[in-house]
Amino acid sequence: MKNNESGMVLIITLIITMISLALVGAIFYLILTTTNFSTKNKTYIQTLEISKSVSKLIMKKLRDGSIKCTGDTVCYSSCEENCFVDLSDISSSFSGYDITATIKVKLDLTTSDLYGIVVSTKKKNSLEKSEVKFLFKKVK
Fold first, then answer.
1. N or C end of the chain, less CB within 10 A?
2. Residue 13 carries which DSSP code?
């Protein structure tokens, strides 16, 4: 009888040890996934803030009339549909990011021009990307 009780204590101890190891493993897994998520979220927030800043810069340039665009056909003085906005003056400030801005729609109205613009920012060597789409109305 004494020998049989020692075996049960050993089995119960092994079961408790396995449960404890499973809990510790689950905690480590949660720590790793939380850290990974936090890193991706931080990168996304950075790309989003850059996209917002570039959007504000484009709006200022549209308002001033100093915007320059490039594309398959160069359209420097005034940007047309499907032209890429020239961002060469700010691309050196964000060397770790690929930033593109495209004028998707331009409507010439009688009293104003309406632009539909997409600003896309992607961190190099990363999958995180953000896009800001906005409409801008320029009064003639």
1. N
2. H
Count how many Cα atoms sit within 13 Å of the Cα of residue 138 in the half-sphere of its side chain: 21
The per-residue pLDDT for range 97-118, each reduced to its tens digit, is: 999 998 888 888 888 888 899 9
Q: CA 123, CA 53: separation in Å to the nearest integer?
A: 15
**pLDDT of amino acid 121:** 93
Single pTM value for the model: 0.72
Distance CA 72, CA 45 (A): 31
- Residue 97: strand, helix, or coil: strand
For the residues of 54-91, what is the DSSP string, one character each?
HHHHHHHHHHHT---EESSS-B-SS--TTEEE--HHHH
